[in-house]
Each structure stands twice: as structure tokens, then as C-alpha cells.
Amino acid sequence: MSGTTKACLRWLKEAPVLPAGVAWGMPWKEGELRRGEELALESGDGSAPPALQSWPAAYWPDGSVKWTAHAAAFPADAAAEYSVRRGSARTMAAAPALSVTETEEHVDVDTGVISFRVPKTGSAIIDGIFRNGVPIGGRAELIAMRETRSELSGSRTYRQERFRSRIARVELEQQGPARAVLKLSGRHRADDGPAGPASTGEWLPFSLRLYAYAGLETIRIVHTFFYDGNPSQDFVKGLGIRFSVPMRGPHYNRHVRFAGDSGFWSEAAKTLHTRRTKGPYLELFERQLRGEWLLEEQVNDGYFLGLLEESASWDSFKLTQHSADSYRMLKRTKSGCSWVKAAEGRRARGVVYAGSRGGGLAATMRDFWRKHPSALEVEGMLGAEAALTAWFWSPDAPAMDMRHYDTETHVESSYEGAEEMRATPYGVANTNELTLWGCASTPTPERLERLAEHNESPPQLACEPEHFHRQGAFGIWSLPDRGTEAKAHLERQLDGIIAFYQREIEQRRWYGFWDYGDFMHSYDPARHVWNYDLGGCAWQNTELVPNMWLWLMFLRSGREDIFRLAEAMTRHTSEVDVYHFGEYAGLGSRHNVVHWGCGCKEARISMAGLHRYYYYLTADERIGDMMEEVKDADYTTVSLDPMRAYFPKDEHPTHARVGPDWAAFSSNWMTRWERFEDAAYRDKLLTGIACIKQASFGLISGPTYGYDPQTGRLTPMGDDNWGRHLAVCMGGPQVWMELAGMLKDPQWNEMMADFGLFYHLPQEEKDDITGGKISASSFGHPVLTLALVAYGASYRQEERTARLAWSFLMEHPFATVDLVNDAQTVSYVRELREIDWMNTNEASQWSLNAIICLELLGDALPERPAIPGSGAIMLKESGR
Asked: Which member of 199, 442, 683, 752 has the lowest number of beta carbons within 10 Å of its beta carbon?
């Protein structure tokens, strides 16, 4: 390959409105990039690019690099496009150097604009933030509040306790010319001695990352907390991060700012507003509201100074987002006095500032109103040091209720999946993002607007869709092609399904701390609601892999709005729906009224294959942690056999279906192998494939096997022991087709093709192949199966199967209904737009399979879209 080979990058939305640190990922073909080769960043407009920091994120089996990750600090006037090429950088923009110093006690970071210290022990996550040598921040701590409930003699008692972070470990994960990354981990410790679980005085483990970029005034914070309490007793009343901010000068020069729906609430600890504020003092008051520093000689009228001295001083301020549609701003003079309502609105933008002469701190919270009940609070503005708190869960809201919705299961009536009551939140997590800005002065309204814009849509670079496709990133999928009427129609339908769910998120208010990012499973047309209260039909929890659908829709379009949908779903499903420790570590909870409610705890919910898209596109370290957690999820099935309801304990340690169980394991192992070149996990993959090869009919056999996690061996248990659709609708084809590109094993490719061709054969043809050993009744749900069906038709050049695949897709309602314009207006608690047959299972699978069929079987697509009720469809001759 030439040293000038380039990959084009563009901003998902627009270039940064403020200087910004950005990380992104890029795919490489096998053999294209060797480890250790230097990479350089070039700007599309010829300007000098910032310093590039690069590292390998995954490898091909031959040792070449499969994915690289990159980071750089971009200016506010960044170019619209960039490219990465092999070779050394010719020029780089001048920028302050990033300095990191580590000792046994702490880590000091200096971006060239701000500096801060991270202690390795104690409660502080940060101990001192400076700009130009001036302290603008003091200590920062994680805080939590627990509400303990008990019922004795018919009365209910509540007790509240406060906790602060206790650091157990600090790791300097990355240090380079562009950025430094520190990972902190620990638990929250009670303020008043032992009071926590098991009398340790500690609970709620946390993982926290701090990101600092060269030349920037920001610290990006990614905060994860894990629940380890008893849901019947231990209610989280508050959860957040508190930063101290030095206060200097007169009260009228101490400023607080909150972002509202579109404007900003701007006040001081003591405003210049009195009943006598007029003339020149009205002008001064207006300057104060703009955040200007007022000199004492400007406020020199004795009478006015007396009024000002006698006027109220305000110590505390807060903005609480109670729901997706309501927030309130309050302030008070001192503890023990009432809060005064200052403003109300709908959706606050998650920006706060507190500071005085010499500057202060601003904080921006991602998805502030979407992940309610959240809050921003400033206290102590009248003293020497204020406290700025970002509440991920506001203590003004009712405490988190992590209990299950019932005391029994409802398997038959509600499709809850298992008789056992395993509805526990012990081990689930939630991740939130916050950016801290070290400000030299009070931000102007124009600068606050830029902070809000940055918070709502953080700058993100990504390759062009054509480059992802050309490189074969994430296996087999198609680019949009509107060259024929039929293809254009399918693209409209695919976009229409996305538009439908974007509308549903908003009109159904799929928001909230524990819910945001998930979709619901299926619909109840009688009540005009999704099945929010029907056990196995409420929250989706990755059922039929909607994550993969959304990520492929982003890859083929490059649309930022779809990226944000997929990002939110990835954050939710990788944390809330997954057990990070405890009895079910490495597994996830199947769909339910409560995210962790279903008794089915399975590897398919947590598999790395769902989340690696986000990891490789953004280099997100938290997702990297999660994928590492699940690498040995197969061991957990020894104590919780996924087939326990159908196969009693026997000579096998546990059982596994080739899909979704082994398919999920294989996604975990493939990811571990490519990330770390860990041969042990490659060998587990090869062992499983060898066992499937030895089965009577390859992938067509089974699909349930005896399984031994120690050896990775699958032992056949017959050829007709379970429905086959689960093998191919939970992400198996997407994982296996990408894996095929790594293994280059013709027999594995042939087994996938044979399975796809076999699936929809009539019984007599199945009997000819298997001697009557496999019943056609095991092969249902045709629209869920078409990825491997298309693979088989393409691999074997089998036109009959190609036509069949398109008939299933084109005669489905998703191909014939305009989901946006054909929705009916109905009245529920308010007027809604409704598609009464909708379910997310088929929306996800129809879309995924259409995307893959367009790539593999585009030549066999009908000339014209199917007409509702027309029956047979005309097919274009494929020549195959």
C-alpha cells in the first residue's frame, strides 16, 4: 500500500463551536496497516492539523491492524473534513503541551490552560483546579444518599445517610500528545461510620474516567455507578458529583448561571436590583447580568450602597428536572429559610456556572432532561467556597425504587420466560457523562449558548459510509442505493421505521434515568399503549438485537440523529440490562416490565457483539470494560443453565443452543481475540466450530448441545430439539459473517450457507437431506431468518431461495405501509399517532435483514415495490 493512502473523516453534525477533544475509530483491511506504522492527520482545507494520538484497537489474525483509535484536540475553527494517512505528520498546529506527572500519592495533569491534581487515596476525585495559577476549583467528590426503609408494628420509618467517594485505585490509562485518561475506581463510604451493607460502611461501587486534552479548559468525566444494595431496603435518594469553587470579592460579583429551554438564567449572590435601581445603576445592573466584573468605585453612591447592603443576599440556587417536561429553578438566602421559585420551564439544557473574580467552574451534563430526575445545584455562594453539584439523581425526587413490580412471575399470561423469581437489580449499572469547564471569567450569554450546543451534540468525527463499507467494517451490510424504484422504496421504508421510533420516543416519553435508550417491545391497540405492564412484552432489552439495526443504519447513512439513537441504546443496554457482578455476572435480563425483572438471564443480552460498534467508532473505554466483563460469561451458565427448563442436569456442566447462547459466546470471544490477540479465546471459537462440524448436519443439527466452558466443547444432543429461529434472530448471523472474514474457513462458510438454504425448504426436501430426522415445525418466523437465507442464496448462487427471501421481505407490512403518514390519530392521555400492529422485534429484524439482502441479493430484488394485497410479486431475473 502507498504511504499516501487516506481515509476521509467528517463531522457528524458540524465542526466544534468551541475547542474540543475528540476520539474516533477507523477500520483497516487485513494486511493494510502493520502494527507500529505511523499515522498522520491532515485537514481538508490545508490548515495545520492538531497533534494526533493513535493506538491499535483490534487486530486481524495475521497480526495487521483491524481497527485504530485516534484522539486530537480541535480548535473552534476546525476544518470541515480531515483524513488520516500512513506516514509522519508534515505540519502540526502549535498548541500547548499536555503534561502528566505521576507520584505514589497523586497524578498531576496540566493541559496548558488548566491544571488539576488527582489523589490516589481518600475521598477526592480531584483536589484543586487552576487556571493561570489562580484556583478556580477545589475538591471534587462523588456523593450519594441512601434512604433506608423499614416497617415495624404497622408503621414505616425512613432513615437517610450520606456517602462520599472512597478511592481504591487510580490508573493512568493513557498519556500522549493529545490527551490523558485516568480511571478511578472505588466505593461510596458513609459519612457517619459503618452503616452500609454487611456493616462495611460502604456501598455503590463506581468507575470514573477523567479525560484531559492538550490546550483545552475541559475535563470530561464518564461516571458509572453499580447497584449493590437490597432493593427492599436500600433506596438511592441522591447521586452526583460535588465540586468546590473558591469565592472572592463582593457578593454582587459572584455569579450563577443556568441554561433553560433556550435562554439562560443569570443572577448574582446579591443583585443590584432594588426598588431604587434606575438611571446609571440600571445600566450597571444590566452589565452585572451579563457577567461583567463591577469595580467597587462604580457602585459609589452612599444611599444606593446602603440599599444594597440591606438587600437580600442569596446563598443557594438549584435547577431540578423533575420529568421530561418540567423543571424548576429555585433560590434561597440561607439554610432554614424557604426556597423561592425563580423560573419554570420544560427541558433544561444541562448547563451550570458558578464563579467570582478570577473565574469559576461550568458543568454540562449530557442528556440532562432525558435522564431525569436530574439537577444542578450551587450552595455557599456567600462564603469563601461554594459547592457546585451535578445530581444524576436529584434528592428532590422520590428515591430510586429498584424493587420488582410484583411478588410472583406471570409466565403464561405475560410471557415472562421463567418460573423462578430472579428479579434483582444487584449488579446493574448506569453510566452518565459530564464535562467540567475551567472558566477564566463568567461566561457571556453567547459563550453559554456554545456550551449548551456542545453539550447537546458533542463533536464527533467518523469515516464516510463508503469508507466503512469498502473496508468491510462489521461484516456484511449495504450502502443506500436508490437506483431502481424498488430499491428507493426500500430505502424510504428503512428511513420510515427510524422516523417512527424517533416519534415514539418523544410521544411516549421513553425517557428517565433507568429507561432512556431502550425501546418497548410490542403494542396494545385496545389501550393505545405499548405493553408497559405486560411482563415479557414491555421493555425490549436488546431482544432481536435492535442495537445492531441502529448501528448499521448509522454506518450506511452517516446520520448524526441515528448515531445518537444508537449511542443512547448502547449506554443503556450495556449497563442497565447487564449484570456486572454477582450471581449473574456477564449475563443480562430478558425483556420485562422492569429492566432487570425477567427470570431469564442470558448471554445474548450482554454479548459484546451488540456494543462493539460504539467501541470501535468512538474508542469508548467504558464499553471496553463492559466487553471485557463478558468474555467468560459462558462460565456463569453452569449455575444458571439457559436450557434448565427443558433439559435436566446430566453429564454436561451446562447446555447451550448454537444460537443465541453459543453465538453470544462467540461474539465475546471474537472481540477478546481481536482486541488482545488472546489465542485462548480464538481456540475456544475453533473448538466450538469443530464440534458443530462433527454434528450430523452441521449448523442444521441440534440446535441444543451439552456444553463445557472449561474446554469449549459442544456435545450434540439430537437433531430436532429446539426451534431454529432463535439461532439466527439474536445477532448470530451478523457475528458469524464477520467472523468468517477472520477465520477464512470454507467449511464454516458452507455450513452457514447450508443452514440458510435449508431453513425454508418444504418438509419433503428437508427429509431428503436429513432422512426425516428434522421437522419443518422447528423452522418458523421467516422474516427473522433472512440474513443467513440471503447468505446461502448468494454463496450457492441459488435463485429460488433469493426470490423467496425477497417475497418474505416485500410482502411484510414494513415494506407496504408508510409508518409516518399512515399512522392513525387516537386519543389516550393525550392525542397520539399510532400504528396498532407495531412490534420492535420485527422492526429490528426486518430492517437488519433488508440491509443485508440488499447487499447480497440486490440483483434479485423485484422491479417494483409490492402492492398491498397483490399476492405474488414480479421478480427481476438474476441470471444466477
From this structure: 199
3-class DSSP state of 20: strand
Amino acid 880: pLDDT? 23
Provide, rounded to the nearest whole percent, the portion of the chain with pLDDT above 90: 84
The C-alpha atoms of residue 596 and residue 416 are separated, in whole angstroms, by 12
Q: Is 656 exposed, middle or buried (0-12, 13-18, 19+ CB in 10 A)?
A: buried
As a whole number of angstroms, the distance between CA 467 and CA 605 comes to 30
Angle between the 663-676 and 621-629 helix axes, to the nearest 10 degrees? 130
> Would you say residue 199 has pLDDT above 50?
no
Between 287 and 672, name the one with better pLDDT: 672
Summary mean pLDDT of the chain: 93
What is the distance, to the nearest Å, from the Cα of residue 516 to the centroid of all Cα atoms in its chain?
10
Contact of 429 with 580, CB cutoff 8 Å = yes
Above 90 in pLDDT, residue 623?
Answer: yes
Q: Which helix (H) or strand (E) holds 650?
A: none
**Are the C-beta atoms of 248 and 357 separated by less than 8 Å?**
yes
* DSSP for residue 811: T
Amino acid of residue 767: D
Identify the H or E element spanning 183.
Answer: strand 179-190
Phi, psi values for residue 744, rounded to 5°: 55, 50
Cell numbers describing residue 659: 444460537
Smallest CA-to-CA distance from 416 within 539, 527, 232, 508 is with: 539
Find the helix or strand (DSSP H, E) in which 736 lies. Answer: helix 732-743
Is the alpha carbon torsion for 277, 282, 286, 291 positive or negative?
A: negative
Share of the chain above pLDDT 70, in %: 95
Per-residue CA distances from 597 to 120, 404, 420 (Å): 37, 6, 11
The number of residues making up the chain comes to 880
Residue 500: strand, helix, or coil: helix
β-bridge pairing 704-708 and 713-716: antiparallel
Relative to beta strand 20-27, strand 65-74 is antiparallel
Cα distance between residue 117 and residue 134, in whole Å: 14
Tally of CA atoms within 13 A in the half-sphere of 750 that contains its CB:
7
Q: Which amino acid is at 420?
A: E
Q: Model confidence at 833, in pLDDT bands (50, 70, 90)? A: very high
Burial 56-65 (b: 16+ CB within 10 A, else e): bbbbbeeebb
Range of 211-225, 282-296, 778-792 with top mean pLDDT: 211-225
Q: Which residues are bridge partners to 578 per DSSP?
A: 588
Q: Are strands 179-190 and 155-175 parallel, antiparallel or unpaired?
A: antiparallel
Task: Dump the DSSP string for 113-142.
Answer: SEEEEEESSSSEEEEEEEETTEEEEEEEEE
Per-residue CA distances from 708 to 587, 604, 671, 697 (Å): 17, 18, 20, 21
Q: Helix crossing, 746-759 with 732-743: angle to 10°?
A: 150
Q: What is the pLDDT of residue 306?
A: 78
H helix and E strand count, the chain:
22, 36
φ, ψ (nearest 5 deg) of residue 312: -65, 140
- What is the distance between the terminal CA atoms of the chain, rounded to a whole angstrom? 35
| pLDDT at residue 155, rounded to an integer | 64
- State the pLDDT confidence band at 863, using cuts at 50, 70 and 90: confident
Calpha distance 395→89 (Å, rounded): 51
Q: Is there a cis peptide before residue 445, judged by omega within 30 degrees of 0?
A: no
* pLDDT value at residue 193: 54
Question: Per-residue pLDDT for 92 more than 80?
Answer: no
DSSP state of 442: P
How many angstroms separate the CA atoms of 462 and 703, rounded? 39
Integer Cα distance of 191 and 598 in angstroms:
35
Which amino acid is it at 850?
A: A
137: exposed, middle or buried (Cβ count in 10 Å: 0-12, 13-18, 19+): buried
Least confident interval from 83-97, 572-586, 629-643 = 83-97
